[in-house]
Write a structure and sequence with these properties.
By secondary structure, the chain is mostly helical. It has one domain: Glycosyltransferase (Alpha/alpha barrel). It is 69% helix and 0% strand. Helix 2 packs across helix 14, helix 7 runs antiparallel to helix 8 and helix 13 packs antiparallel against helix 14. The longest helix is centred in the C-terminal third of the chain and has 29 residues. The two termini are 24 Å apart.
Length: 337
Amino acid sequence: MFPETEIAMTAAPPFAARIPAAFFAMVLGLGGLANGWRVAAKLWGLPNAIGDAVSLLACAVWLVVFAAMVAKWTAARKAAIGEATHPVAGGFLALAPLSGMIATLAALPLLGMIGKALLLVFVAAQIAFALWYVGRLWTGGRGAEATTPVLLLPTVGGSFVAAMALSALGVADAAKMAFGAGLLSWIVIEALLWQRFLHQPALPPPIRATIGIHMAPPAVGLVSWLSVTSGAPDALALGLFGYALLQAAIMARLIPWIRQQPFGAPYWAFSFAVAALPLGAMRMVERGAEGTVALLAPALFVLANLIIGGFFVLSVMRMAQGKYVPPLQPPTPAPTP
């Protein structure tokens, strides 16, 4: 699993200690897919009920994982603190508010004013966590091996999704500010990640699937940009879509390398981009895009359903086998600068 499993051993109930914050990643794909079905219903007359059902499933998964994390912080606090302060695993805590925003946006037509109130709470929580996390990063003391795509979650993914949430709340100027924060953070962190990929040892198998997060910013950024703009898709939208396609093609080329890590919850890291890529294409079609985008949109949507549906089925099977929740492992030495 992710390094969040490399947490301090504790006398607390082991199952509570073994629940990683990375489990929130399941919500990203389900919530994004639900939004895709809503747009598909407008474009191609598909049933609205499917979008409603998947959005409710995303909310249910978020509630279950949130309850598990509360249990962890209550019954296995030492393990929870160890995860939060881990140089890699700590970044996954950003998924709690981030996936909460995704699930709420997906279910917003069903939740009404309650959903809007929840969006405000999640946006505030995302900002608070990003400030805490980045403040720790800026104090230094991290080794190069701790630079992984997880760094993209607090400021890049969180800001892009916050822009969508603020746009849904009707706060247009703040939504554009959030998009800008995510875009500029992405540019900086993207450069760091290329340096890490090119000049450091390969990501070890236990965290190899985190590279799926690296695929997300252009696709999620596209959906975010469309949420803060209106009219026909512009050059930036098409450029983000093109870079997202490039990232997807590279990930497809790396499948044999990625599969050296057996399937488990880490693979849901790919679902953020897998759901966002067709959603961005479909929203561009909804706003008048033709040609290549219109040609690719239905194929990408079908592929997203197959991939995320496959992840869900395999996850249920692993749960039934008792192999989905990772074992508790002793801590490893902290990376050295």
